Amino acid sequence: MYAFEQLKKETVKVLTAGGLKDIIVEIPPENINADLAVPCFSDAKQLKKSPVEIAKEIAENIKIPKDSIVGRVAAQGPYINIYAGAKFFKNAINEVIKEGSKYAHKKPVKKTMVVDMSAPNIAKPMSVGHLRSTILGDSIARIYTSLGWKVIRDNHIGDWGTQFGKLIYAYKKWGDKKKVEKNPIPELLKLYVEFHKKCEKDKELDDAARNEFKKLEDRDKENTNLWKWFVDVSLNEFRKTYSELDVCFDLWLGESFYNEMNAEIITEALKKGVAKKDGGAIIIDFNDKKMPPFLIQKKDGATLYSTRDLSTIKYRVQKFKPDKIVYAVGGEQAQHFIQLFRAADMLGYAKKEQMVHVSFGLVSLPEGKMSTRNGRVVYLQDVLNKSYDIAEKIIDEKNPDLKNKKNVAMAVGVGAIKFNDLSQNRIKNILFDWNRMLSFEGDTGPYLQYTHARGCSILRKAKIKKAPKFEIATTKEEKELILHLSKYANAVTLAAVTYEPHHIATYLLTLSHKFNLFYQKCPVIVEENKDIKDSRIALVFASKQVISNGLKLLGIDAVEEM
Ligand code: ARG
To answer: Is any ligand 1 atom within 6 A of the Cβ of residue 313?
Structure first.
């Protein structure tokens, strides 16, 4: 994997009169009009010349071979600026066309990643926070898959914990089977809320709930069946949402899967001297004033979220030998993950560097913040439906005769939500501003989808099935577009190493701007010179291909018409 800086600066070996030599090559900043730059500082002392003189001398004496990808070389201050030539443009476009949907994909690199993502909780609605985790985790999984990694998407469902004692108690007391069957999650949520309300007045309910959970842990038949039923009906709901979001999982190992392992983990932690008894509880103490101890067993003997997460790491490492375990989980759990990674490292389950908390900010909906306890809830499905509705209205206005309108509206609605999320620094809080997100003109998912569809429409009008060969770029707009296209792989790598898909999102926005500029300035279908026309068609083809490849890495469907 590249180091972060190397994306901007690279050392290359060059054959000089004095033999092989390392030189530094940089991608210059935006305000410098050059494609590459070579700084000339390093030899100044030895040659007893100023870097400016050295740059000038080299640039004047360089002979560019005929078939070079370099077109022109010129000195600017202490730098030698290098400009791409005809061959570079030709290679860049023909490579995109040749590789198609596999363009910028890497061969298998024998590396494995587990992505812990989505992980909603049983009997509760999937929250917008889980939506972020799903979208972000999925995009990271897609990016690393394209870079040749084996990626395992694991949905660590919240299907265990004392809250199930409360739910079982509430259901036995106030539940109605038919109602739950008809409308599972809202009904179960109601019971949960009811329990909390009653509990405020009657503290004994807590004991009753604890008792129900104990029975569940001891595999009481009735409680186990109820629990299984809650899990089934909830998963059915979640699956619908995943299918609309076009997100799949390789594993669905919820917290309950690790029940058998927890005792062993606690014993091992005590034996290794990593954990210790504290009152009746068991903790892992980091002996660090800034980091509180990690509680892995409560006084009453119950295990916790933390214990199950430790078991999960041990299991994943044994089973998959992952090079990385990536957790797409909200920033409010930052401390939990610092403690978890430290503890797993101390126990020898995984090295700290092997695990990454890909943290993210909150989501605010115009409808207000959601909270499960008091029942004021925004249902994710309503959020998705709203997005489809707005998209459909816009399409109705813009393209009333479009076939398959409903499907396109869904792709645009989902695209808008995903892009709104993935186009920003993930740690930032995001706002759902419906009008902005769904606009076909701003920096939005629909704008990219629309640009892609425009590319497809040009190709339909040109009546070509196969892209022609690219030969020549004649205008500034074409050259700038091609240069930007050639930087796509860099954007993908940058997104991967930083776990920030927004690098791809911003790259695609610039690409679309440059594509639209090109299309405004350069005639394509009506161009009379055949070489120029073919090259421009090839350029349209390559641009829409890269937009589609990039959107795919964000999990967004590049529709052909909209
Ligand atoms: N179910 C948890 C929640 O909703 C998220 C789980 C994240 N994954 C993990 N391995 N802890 O907050």
So the answer is: no
Q: DSSP characters for 103-151?
A: TT-----S-EEEEE----BTTSPPPHHHHHHHHHHHHHHHHHHHTT-EE
Nearest Cα neighbor of 476 from 442, 507, 512, 520 is 520
pLDDT (tens digit, 9 = 90+) per residue, 294-347? 999 999 888 999 999 999 999 999 999 999 999 999 999 999 999 999 999 999
Q: Whose CA is nearest to atom 6 of ligand 1?
A: 119
Q: Which position has the token pair 């005792």? A: 263
Give the residue, out of 153, 155, 156, 336, with the most ligand 1 atoms within 8 A of its beta carbon, to mutate for a pocket test. 156
Cα–chain-centroid distance for residue 396?
31
* 134 and 118 Cβ atoms separated by less than 8 Å: yes
Tell whether ligand 1 has an atom less than 6 A from the beta carbon of residue 35: no
pTM of the model: 0.93
Collapsed DSSP state (helix, strand, coil) of residue 183:
coil
Nearest to 192 by CA among 170, 165, 174, 177: 170
One-letter identity of residue 220: D
CA of 153 to the centre of ligand 1 (A): 14
User: Exposed, middle or buried by CB within 10 Å (0-12, 13-18, 19+), for 300?
Assistant: exposed
DSSP label at 353?
A: G
Instruction: List, in order of start, the domains of the chain with CATH numbers.
Output: 3-84 (3.30.1360.70), 163-245 (no CATH), 380-553 (1.10.730.10)
Please check whether residue 328 is in contact with residue 249, taking contact to mean a CB–CB distance below 8 angstroms: no
Give the pairing of strands 355-360 and 324-330: parallel
CB 119 near ligand 1, within 6 Å: yes
Write out pLDDT tens, residues 29-74. Answer: 778 888 888 888 887 888 899 999 999 998 998 888 888 888 899 9
Radius of gyration for the chain, computed over Cα atoms and rounded to the nearest angstrom: 29
Atom of ligand 1 nearest to the CA of 309: 10
